[in-house]
Write a structure and sequence with these properties.
alpha/beta, Quinone Oxidoreductase, Chain A, domain 1, Rossmann fold, seven-stranded mixed beta sheet, six-stranded parallel beta sheet, 13 helices, 18 strands, ADH_Zn_CS, zinc
Length: about 375
């Protein structure tokens, strides 16, 4: 079938993207679903810093690339072997499909699925297939999703079925921002009730983590960002203290306000400097978690003696260390109860033709989560 899709042709073009237009809206051919695959009509797809890091060249991916990894939609057709979904079902995409049989999957850590990592690097679906073409030439998939498009063909293992009463523009956020942010808090950091928590980087994922920390029962929440507008939003969502990272006394002021640092500090900046700040804000005996994706050559130095003398813990979290089929229904239940107000993270709606403008807003810190709606 012929569809319109957002295709990245070349990385590293300068801002403003509304002028340089790194992402083109192209008519492409989409194959029907093969064995174990599903055709989904996209309803909403979120713009994320992970997409931006591909556009600016800091995370290499094969080109040309059909962009988009955070989305929700409606099943249009199922391929052979798919028996638990049918036309009309509502689904959320997960950007790490789980093969179910590799060592990480067998250990209950599907976010580290080895075939999924290989497929993402190769620009294919989990099966190794490429279902998007233009003039007979394959176009690479972004992490098996490619959701900035009218339709997507994806592995059944990239989809989580959800109830039809959840607005799809909010449901889309659960596949990345919520799963990553809340999961980093509850699965990786394992924040305890009454603990103090710091969040460094208050974009869509960081603010989702803030909501998750509140739901987990954190007693104090410290928000840190470079933009006062994001600090104000964090305050409105429940942060007890906020600090601007541009100020030279940011760490000292935050540590003083929390009697020597927080029990858990989570970094969502995607920059080594943000991780260093999060580590400095963590108290003796505390846990530092990073869920950002810095460039592959970024490095981070720490005093090695801290790990022993201060019993410090430093952990990484990918996809919120989640088991999506378990966690997404739980987070949706919290949303229904009003304990995880994910809808407040949505700050803009775009047409597909406005996607370059949307990435300008994201890069400039003018938006938290925007969705392309169809």
């Amino acid at each position: 079938m012929k569809i319109r899709a957002a295709v990245l042709e070349k990385v590293g073009l300068p801002q403003p993207y509304a002028q340089s237009r790194p992402v083109t809206i192209a008519q492409v051919d989409l194959d029907p679903p093969g064995e174990g695959e599903v055709l989904v009509r996209i309803a909403a797809a979120g713009l994320c810093h992970s997409d931006l890091s591909i556009i600016n060249g800091s995370r290499p991916r094969p080109m040309p690339l059909a962009l988009g990894h955070e989305a929700a939609g409606v099943v249009e057709e199922v391929g052979p072997g798919v028996r638990d979904l049918r036309k009309g079902d509502h689904v959320i995409f997960v950007f790490v499909p789980s093969c179910g049989s590799c060592t990480p999957c067998a250990e209950g850590r599907p976010a580290l699925c080895e075939p999924a990592v290989a497929a993402a690097g190769a620009g294919t679906l989990l099966s190794g297939a490429q279902r998007i073409h233009r003039d007979g030439t394959p176009i690479n998939h972004q992490v098996g999703v490619s959701s900035f498009a009218e339709y997507a063909t994806a592995s059944r293992r990239s989809l989580i079925k959800v109830d039809a009463d959840i607005p799809l523009e909010y449901a889309a956020l659960f596949g990345c921002a919520v799963l990553t942010g809340v999961g980093a808090v509850v699965n990786c950091a394992q924040v305890r009730a009454g603990a103090t928590v710091g969040i460094v980087g208050l974009g869509g994922v960081g603010l989702a983590a803030l909501l998750g920390a509140i739901a987990a029962g954190a007693s104090r929440l410290v928000g840190i960002d470079l933009l006062d507008s994001k600090l104000a939003l964090a305050k409105s969502l429940g942060a007890t203290e906020t600090f601007n990272a541009n100020k030279t006394d940011c760490v000292d002021a935050a540590r003083a306000a929390t009697a020597g640092g927080v029990d858990y500090c989570l970094d969502f900046t995607g920059a080594a400097e943000g991780l260093a700040l999060a580590y400095k804000l963590t108290r003796r005996g505390g846990v530092t978690v990073t869920a950002g994706l810095p460039p592959p050559d970024a490095t981070f130095a720490l005093p090695a003696v801290h790990l022993v003398a201060e019993e410090r813990t430093l952990k990484g979290s990918y996809l919120g260390s989640a088991v999506p089929v378990r966690d997404i229904p739980r987070y949706i239940a919290l949303y229904r109860q009003g304990r995880l107000p994910v809808d407040r993270l949505l700050t803009g709606r775009l047409r597909l033709d406005e996607i370059n403008l949307g990435f300008d807003r994201l890069a400039n810190g003018e938006a938290i989560r925007q969705v392309v709606t169809f």
